[in-house]
# Entry
Amino acid sequence: MALLAAIEARAGETGKTWNFDGDKPDAPPTGFSFGRTGQGAPGKWLVKAVPDAPSKGNVLAQTDGDDTDYRFPVAVADAPSLKDVRLSVKCKQVAGKVDQGCGLVFRFRDADNYYITRANALEDNVRLYHVVKGRRVQFAGWDGKVASGVWHDLRVDAKGNHFEVYFDGKKVMETKDDTFSDAGKVGVWTKADSIIYFDDLTAEAL
# Structure
């Protein structure tokens, strides 16, 4: 019960939500592991109390502004491990001169092998990639306004080799890919000097 209260996760038969409101501010969240694809600093993930948090309390923030371009810090939930999943998060691009990318990782094996969808406020686009042995390859994309400094909803539905990506409630991509077919962990992602806030990370089995 203490652990459940600490991570403020609502668990059921089909999913789990992390809102970070039971975690201690200015410390990493309970139940997550951290890594980095590419080069540069590993990333600094901290729980922060912010006035406009969608869950009315804390958020998870990546706060390290290392501007190494091919640098992708990730924060991954230790459980559950899912193959077919509806994964969503609320995120706000706070700062970044090289990049302002907020992302979701799924079917995560390790920091060099996973799927990622991300929304970039400097490029005004949403992209879908697979990362294999540390190499990121785009296989779908959408161009449209991604505002900085406001909260957005990002979601991916992955079922078998079929993927749908939603941004602020609108389906922006639908495609297929066979790179990773096994279950994996889920989490959040940033790039380079992106300072990003995340809240209400939700994983539901499909």
The first strand starts at residue 9 and ends at 11. DSSP finds one helix and 16 strands in the chain. The chain has one domain: 2-205.
